[in-house]
Specification:
The strands form 4 sheets. Strands 1-2-3-5-4 form a 5-stranded antiparallel β-sheet, with helices on one face. A 3-stranded antiparallel β-sheet has the order 6-8-9. A two-stranded antiparallel sheet has the order 7-10. The protein has 9 helices and 12 strands.
Length: about 300
Amino acid sequence: MQMESTNGGPPWFAYFPDGSVRLGGVPERLLHHPEMHRRGITLTDALKPAVVFRAASDKPAYVVKVLDLDTEELQIYERLLSDIDSPRNHTIPCDIYREGHPLLIMPYVNTLSSLVEDANRSPSQLLDMFCQLTEGVEYLHSLHIAHLDICEGNVIAALPYDAQYHPSVVARKIYLIDFNTSKQLRLGPGVQHAITLPPTQIPPPDDLKHFDPYSWDVYCLGRLCQDVIESYSYDGRKVPWIAQWYARWLLGKEQGCHTVCRCRPTARTARRMLFVIRFLLPVVELCESFYLRTRKRPAE
């Protein structure tokens, strides 16, 4: 079991009356926290035991995260929130409570898969999701921030009713969360050499331990795009071949680079490629339709 932090940070455990740890519970120090009372937030359970808690029964609903001061998450959120009005910034609008131990208080919105299911799942909407994800990663990289744990669990999306309860979020916008293992780097994409990867939810290819951090984000972005494609096509809906190609292109062909990685595109190049793909999509769809019609035409 994880030990209590020496800096007052997570884990913040909840306990049963007999003294045993209640992993899904909310600790007393949060249940009776003055800021929760001031905001009228009643936390109900843990999304990530001893670290992230939610008030799912409230409208509007909120999530509270106990920030770990041994990581760079607080500093990264401070930088990202200072530019929250930028349309390229895909950080969820939230507040940092600073009296006592820092807490992150953010809107509780939906999952990325919920956005896929809520949409009419047209090819253009699929590519829009790719564009938002790529734009968010490119924005981080422009600030020399590598997320390092991009996956479906660290991406959320605001549905229209989320935006009704939380005016600060944008309906159908995708947000990147959880910068607990993220790094602020001195060098940017195309210059930064490989670093030792922190623990990640997506396993590295070939069990690699070192990766160009920006290239690792793009690899994870490719895996995430494949997850979106899987959700998009769950009922047999046809996925444009160009979307499948794009996800594979992001994955690249890993060569185990220890310096600057050239195995896959940068996030900026990936975003520019999406601009071209979205422009050409009507032509691609027309060609596919013509090809399918000619294949089905009986031989004369």
